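Attaching the record inline, Q. Sequence:
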Amino acid sequence: MIGFLDCYSGISGDMCLGAVVDAGVPLDVLSAALDGMRLAGYVRLDASEVRRGAIRATQVRVVASAGQPHRTFREIVALLDAAPIEPAVHDHALAVFRRLVEVEGRIHGAPPDEVELHEVGAIDSIADVVGTVAGLAHLGVEDLYASALPVSPGEIAGRHHGALPAPGPAALDLLAAAGAPLRPFGDGRELVTPTGAAIVATLARFEQPAMRLRRVGYGAGGAELPWPNVLRLWLGEPAPAAAVAPLETHVVVETSIDDMSPQLLAPVSASLVAAGALDVTFSPLAMKKGRAGTLVAAVARLQDEAAIAEVLLRETTTLGVRVHGIRRHEADRSFETVETAYGPIIVKLKLVDGRVIGAMPEFESVRAAADESGAPLLRVHQAAAAAAAPLVGETAPVATGRRRADG
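Structure, as predicted:
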């Protein structure tokens, strides 16, 4: 099973808890992980169905008893080490806390072991991290991925340090260390909390995987916002690359021209082919004010788009080009030399599933043989086509050789 965190409205610890519960994890599984850390009686989890905008989601609240201390990293490690939890849950939760400690140490200029975690050391954040890790393990998530994260500059209120710039320093440092992709969104609100940033930066890769989707869990954020404040957890199986067709494999780069002589336009085709074009077409157009024009279109591989566009901008009068992504399926091809009464001629073989299904004489080779022999071009072409016909139906690769046909 793989998971994808769709962080449309950011990510926080309680949103992660809500997403795993909504995806099918019983609340008792998360509570048992916390009880194993000897936190029973100090904290409990409540789950309820809520609406965020037009979307139904699950909100999980961490309810802590009054007077809970801020635990240090050493104390959290001791709690984890003593808990009868799965080794993977222990190790992943510890990795999240360790990353938080390293970031807090850099921000406050203190060694990691001396860092007081404040918000993250509070019992609700401990419950968020351990519960999320335990929930993902229960779901069988072996690989976790995440989308780009929404951030927007603004101001947030910190419990212990007064006003802070948004995103908060700890969250921003965590995202920077992970090389997380960010997108502007949120109007200055804190959408990515330090706990949420630590979870996603430690456990997930920032990319969208090819997957066969099975179910989706919606975790609600605590605030009512002008947009659906939810985190979506997509769950499914990895999809083989061949089963997921790319959205586009090639591009069509085209432009419309009505102020250029056809004599000057014709040589552009050769330049486009030299730049990587696979096909070049010229089509008549009726353009504005009734002027006759020409549509120049080149099909090319994705990596050759810029070179094709540069040729059209440099060698024609156009002021701009259009680019359309397309998918292209291609037959395999190979070349064979056949012997005719007019000399050897190259033919192009069309291959599908390893068999030759078509054979066509190459025009330039036919023309060279016609010029050399003085025979009519059409007769030479017919002789080459007749010599190539026996190749159709053979299994590729065809053995190279010369075949003779009477002219």
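The mean pLDDT is 88. Residues 2-242 form one domain.

More tomorrow.
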